[in-house]
TrEMBL record:
Function: Function in general translation initiation by promoting the binding of the formylmethionine-tRNA to ribosomes. Seems to function along with eIF-2.
InterPro entries documented for this protein: EFTu-like_2 (IPR004161), EFTU-type (IPR029459), P-loop_NTPase (IPR027417), Small_GTP-bd (IPR005225), T_Tr_GTP-bd_dom (IPR000795), TF_aIF-2_arc (IPR004544), TIF_IF2 (IPR015760), TIF_IF2_dom3 (IPR023115)
Protein family: Belongs to the TRAFAC class translation factor GTPase superfamily. Classic translation factor GTPase family. IF-2 subfamily.
NCBIfam families cross-referenced by the UniProt entry: aIF-2, PRK04004.1, small_GTP
GO CC terms, sorted: cytoplasm
Record keywords, A-Z: GTP-binding, Initiation factor, Nucleotide-binding, Protein biosynthesis
Residue ranges of every copy of the Tr-type G domain listed in the record: 10-226
Binding site for GTP: 19-26, 81-85, 135-138
Top-level taxonomic group: Archaea
The species this protein was found in: Halorubrum alkaliphilum
Stated name of the protein: Probable translation initiation factor IF-2
One Gene Ontology term of the molecular function aspect: translation initiation factor activity
């Protein structure tokens, strides 16, 4: 087999941990790292920046009989230290996800939560294989903990009652996965990991099931990713910026995950920047000092080169404008222009479709910017501009140029508001939204828009002339004219004071005068509703000449108001107002079919 001749060039698969807040991502990573350090022979665990590399033989010690080193030729697993889908989507490589495989952590008691759904969406979109760690099994009532044991052995030690509770929870999660479109089962029942998602019951606290989790991760990578892991170890390095950080003595540095080739001290590199790709030269490659030397003054040690997969801090001039999530390319034997073009092409893929009018988005990384853009597209919110970086005065000025009031909104994800931008905000007609959870940020904005629209409708509703139909009651003429005072019953709608009223003759509307008072049981009121009997004063007509007892009159609704009522406020007005409006419009339109349209 040709593959076997390449064994020395298989790189470590990169593993990301995702899941809802508090479901145990950090604890699980800590448990895996902690037990790796204690299981490893001294010096076997290499320190990385932003990632932990666990070699195969350490994994084998941790997993016991579940991982036999001879069955594998991948060198181990590289866990990205920052869990969560935020860093997952930040870490891209050649347009896809940087992580080769993911662990979706789900609290076995809580099941799917909003960020679980978000994580699933991202995993689906990026086509990343994943396993589900059903965490916190030790919290099952009556649980009998079996520190560090494989799950089967731990389950044998449980009471029937505890097992039935756990199983119920596990099947709940399997059901939720199926609702999300993934066929899943407990991992030992899965025949084909390419078709089915394996669920591994674990505890980050007692480490039960952790051997199984490692075994599944190793097995999945070995079986389905071996080809992708085959790399040219001497090729020009390719990586992704995890974070841009100022470091004393080095200036701006980029913490980078290298996923292909090798990066050497002195290499010319191209890094994605805010405006243009940055071309610079590696001054130092830094890795954390081994634990044994932690007491020395300096935090980092310089290394001559770093091969994939690895996390490394790159110190080089001009990195201030580098962006988290941006590509890093070693130039070496290819033309510089090609490297620049590659970086540009990768950045262009992330470019957000913008509209002439829309909201402004700021995000901390390219990946989160892209995630924001996707979420906004789904919510049908147009974007006028989307950029990586903190909120600066310029952003406020741009937001203010939006045409629609509801678009004068700045959605800031996981970034700081610069002090001079804060001052600007106080006087600007701009609404700022900040949150470090994407769906909440968008929900906040949507709630704001809805409230605005409701408030607007309410003000319009206050001003608009309400329709009404009412009848002059027999024997209730209190005054003939100047003004005419008559008793009426409202048949439909709302009769408001100060409105013009009239009647239809055929299909022609005749105005008879305007209301100058409404009295209900002797009290002055502003309006009378359907079914009420009130006395009204009408300036203009004379009873017995212009109007008669028993006549039906209408509030005169101006054409513009009728249109707004019919087209915009239909849901806001009452059923009997709608009825009065319909009758009024019907008659008007018999004469002029386009009236109020
Ligand atoms: P994250 O927000 O997903 O990173 O969650 P954390 O790792 O911070 O865990 C949240 C809380 O759950 C912490 O109080 C942990 O101690 C606790 N926790 C995490 N995993 C387990 C577990 O397996 N069993 C128990 N009993 N508690 C856990």
């Amino acid at each position: 087999m040709t593959e076997d001749t390449h064994t020395d060039t298989l790189r470590t698969p990169i593993v990301a941990v995702l899941g809802h807040v508090d479901h145990g991502k950090t604890s699980l990573l800590d448990e895996i790292r902690g037990s790796a350090v204690s299981e490893a022979e001294a010096g076997a665990i290499t320190q990385h920046i932003g990632a932990t590399d666990i070699p195969l033989d350490t994994i084998s010690r941790m997993a016991g009989e579940l991982v036999i080193p001879d069955d594998f030729d991948l060198p181990g697993l590289l866990f990205i230290d920052t869990p969560g889908h935020h860093s997952f989507s930040t870490l891209r490589a050649r347009g896809g996800a940087l992580a080769d495989i993911a662990v979706l952590v789900v609290d076995v008691n809580d099941g799917f939560q909003p960020q679980t759904e978000e994580a699933i969406d991202i995993l689906r979109r990026t086509g990343t294989p994943f396993v589900v760690a059903a965490n916190k099994i030790d919290t099952t009532p009556g649980w009998n903990p079996q520190e560090g044991e494989p799950i089967q052995r731990s389950m044998e030690a449980q009471s029937e009652r505890a097992m039935s509770m756990l199983n119920e929870n596990l099947y709940e999660i399997i059901g939720q996965l199926s609702d999300a479109g993934f066929s899943a089962d407990l991992y030992w029942r899965v025949q084909d990991f390419q078709k089915n998602i394996g669920v591994v019951p674990v505890s980050a606290i007692t480490a039960e099931g952790v051997p199984d989790l490692l075994a599944v991760l190793m097995g999945l990578s070995q079986r389905f990713m071996k080809e992708e892991m085959a790399i040219d170890v001497n090729g020009p390095g390719e990586g992704t910026v995890l974070e841009v950080k100022d470091e004393r003595g080095f200036g701006a540095t980029v913490d980078t995950v290298v996923y292909d080739g090798v990066i050497e001290n002195g290499d010319e590199i191209v890094v994605g920047g805010q405006e243009e790709p940055i071309v610079t030269e590696v001054r130092a490659l830094l890795q954390p000092r081994p634990l044994a030397e932690i007491r020395t003054e300096k935090q980092f040690e310089k290394v001559a080169s770093v091969g994939a997969a690895a996390g490394v801090k790159i110190a080089a001039p001009d990195l201030d404008d580098a962006m988290a999530g941006a590509p890093v390319r070693v130039v070496r034997d290819k033309p510089l222009d090609d490297a620049i073009a590659e970086v540009k092409a990768e950045l262009a893929e992330i470019e957000v479709d913008t509209a002439e009018d829309g909201v402004v988005v700021k995000a901390d990384t390219l990946g989160s910017l892209e995630a924001m853009a996707n979420a906004l597209r789904e919510a049908e919110v147009p974007i006028m501009r989307a950029e990586v970086g903190d909120v600066a005065p310029r952003d406020i000025a741009i937001t203010e140029t939006a045409n629609q009031e509801e678009h004068k909104a700045l959605l800031a994800f996981n970034v700081d508001i610069l002090p001079n931008a804060e001052t600007e905000l106080e006087s600007a007609d701009v609404k700022l939204f900040t949150n470090d959870v994407i769906y909440q940020l968008i929900e906040d904005y949507e709630t704001y828009v809805e409230e605005r629209q409701r408030a607007q409708q309410e003000t319009v509703l206050d001003k608009v002339v309400r329709p009404s139909r009412f009848r002059l009651l027999p024997d209730h003429t209190f005054r003939q004219n100047d003004p005419a005072v008559v008793g009426v019953e409202i048949i439909a709608g709302t009769l408001q004071n100060n409105r013009s009223v009239g009647y239809f003759e055929g299909n022609e509307f005749h105005r008879v005068g305007s209301l100058s008072g409404i009295q209900k049981q002797g009290d002055d009121v502003d309006e009378a509703r359907s079914g009420e009997r009130v006395s009204i004063a009408i300036d203009g007509p004379t009873v017995g000449r212009d109007i008669e007892e028993g006549d039906t009159l209408w509030t005169e609704v101006p054409e513009k108001h009728a249109k707004i009522l019919e087209q915009e406020l239909k849901e806001e007005i009452t059923a009997d107002e709608r009825e009065a409006l319909a009758g009024y419009l019907d008659t008007r339109r018999k004469r002029d079919p386009f009236w109020g349209k």
